[in-house]
Amino acid sequence: MSGNSQLVEHEAPQELLTQRGLFAGPSPIVSADLYAEVSHGIADRERDRVVVHPHTTVTMNTYFGRFPATYWQRWCVSPEVELSLELTGSGQVSIVASDSDGETRMIAAESVDGAKSRVVRLSAKIDKFADGGGLWFDVVTGEERLVVERVRWTVAPPKRVRPTAVVICTFNRVEDCLNTLDGLASDAEPLSLVDTIYVVDQGSDPVESRPRFAEISDRLGAKLRYIRQPNLGGAGGFTRGLYEVTELGAAEHANVLFMDDDVLCEPEIVIRMTAFANRTAQPVIVGGQMLYLLHPNHLHVGAEYANLDTLAPGQIVRGALHDVDLTAYDEETGKKNMQERRVDAGYNGWWSCLIPSEIVKAVGYPLPMFFQWDDIEYGYRARANGFATVTLPGAGVWHADFHWKDWDDWHRYFNLRNALITSALHSRFDPRRICRAMAAQLATYLVGMQYGLAATQLKAIEDFLKGPSVLRDGGVEAASEIRKLRAEFPETIKHPASEVPGISSGDLPMIPSPGVPRKHIAVLAKRLVGQYLGKSTHDVGAIPAGDAAWWHVSTFNTAVVTDASQEGVRVRRRDRELAIRLGKQGAKLIRELYQRAPEMRHTYREAMDDLTSRDNWKRLYDL
Fold this sequence. Notes:
Elements: E1 10-11, E2 16-21, E3 37-40, E4 43-45, E5 49-52, E6 57-59, H1 69-75, E7 80-98, E8 104-125, E9 135-140, E10 146-155, E11 160-161, E12 164-170, H2 174-185, H3 188-191, E13 196-201, H4 211-220, E14 224-228, H5 233-247, E15 255-260, H6 268-279, E16 285-292, E17 298-301, E18 304-307, E19 312-316, E20 322-325, E21 352-356, H7 357-363, H8 374-384, E22 389-399, H9 411-426, H10 431-447, H11 451-465, H12 476-486, H13 520-532, E23 538-543, H14 550-553, E24 556-562, E25 569-573, H15 576-611, H16 614-620
Parallel strand pairs: 12-13, 12-15, 13-14, 16-22, 23-24
Antiparallel strand pairs: 1-11, 2-10, 3-6, 4-5, 5-10, 6-9, 7-8, 7-9, 7-10, 15-21, 16-21, 17-20, 18-19, 24-25
């Protein structure tokens, strides 16, 4: 399906909607406490309104209820925000503020008595939040009830409002993609802010083949553009949206909002991220936050960065929340788990991330990395050119929990190879630190009997050393090769826990880990020597996923390890000769990496402009 979609700047409304006051989520699995908390008494929370019964207190000091004032003060040009509410009944509404320590103060309040659909407006200066803090409203009733609805936080608009395109990249997740599209189509107000929705389908099972697609397509109308293309990974799918938007002459100042196909979509994110992007002092990448789909109350991280010297992604910015229950209270302080302190991100994952077209014009398109680290590389490239990334609290979608995905998978190849490329492009690329990290990883894989994972790492290093030519096909060949390579190693295969090949369930005791060793290097050396000499503490045993660290697994001849997904087990068997062969191969490759690091740093930087050019992506898309 193709369309004649155009992205044009819109005349500014009288006021710019920054967020709505919502009182329940888009799905029954989402707790209403993420939106509105009943501190005392009884309240009926619906999506767009709340009925506050007599003698009740409702606070919007919640993840989705707060206005992130500290981020607006730091990055935007709006000096004031207005809260408007439609009230029916009797009670008091007040705006409350917090600071970076979570201490609260009341900003404004108004009481109504017997109101009938009365619109109340309260305003707050965005002027005392430099280091942290937010704004929200509380509702208190006495003898009568109060109905609160049509809640809107607004700021003064820009002269023109930037057009927005949503880009959804999908690969054989048809139902997930349709659910995300349905979520966007189901909420008229955020949908009205979107000019175009690009669905970039790279799968062999096309989304358009389902009857449900036709129904959703009718609802979206001319906004929807459905594109089929070869599988170029997440990088190729999302970049196609950037490519299409920047082709339109009138889209010089446009927002391109990436959205994963397998998220539980909160349509409100469109309002919050686009409003923020419309009011920033300079263009910034606006990142949405990730909440855990399996544990919907939990925030993944408030802001993260990558350590490019040790190739470690997902590092927690100091002061940022990580894997916390947003509806719970801190045991020490008694305060709710809220991101009070403003924290600055190094990058933002592309589960939901808005990139202004001006940044694309200035720094180019993403690298054709297939996937993994494409978002990190782009964030650091933008930063090097003066464009920051802001991870915006209160703008969130639910995505599968990362720690329920096993590290020992084919995607680890792209994680390692692309980490090396990103480090070569955007760091000192110190050979000593890089190679020390690579050697330590390899040693732990070998003693942990993860020979397929060790081979995956070595393939990543080997391909990195081939230079930028490895990216010329967008990663298609590498994706095929790594799957074939890993299939040669039995421990990469997942088995049902009840049917472990070659082992009777009666001969499989569960053996937990004794704990984390104090001296990792000494223990690692001892395990390596022990395995070389054929020594072990246990012959065979089962190990839960949480205990599957190398220092424990390495004490077995055969370890049946629960997969992180909890859907099965992997069987790791000691193979001394294979470990020696992989160790020798690894030593040779890491030595070559050490010697050629300056050369590779220069080579990748020289190729950057060509790899990220529009012409290169046009070639990859075969347009």
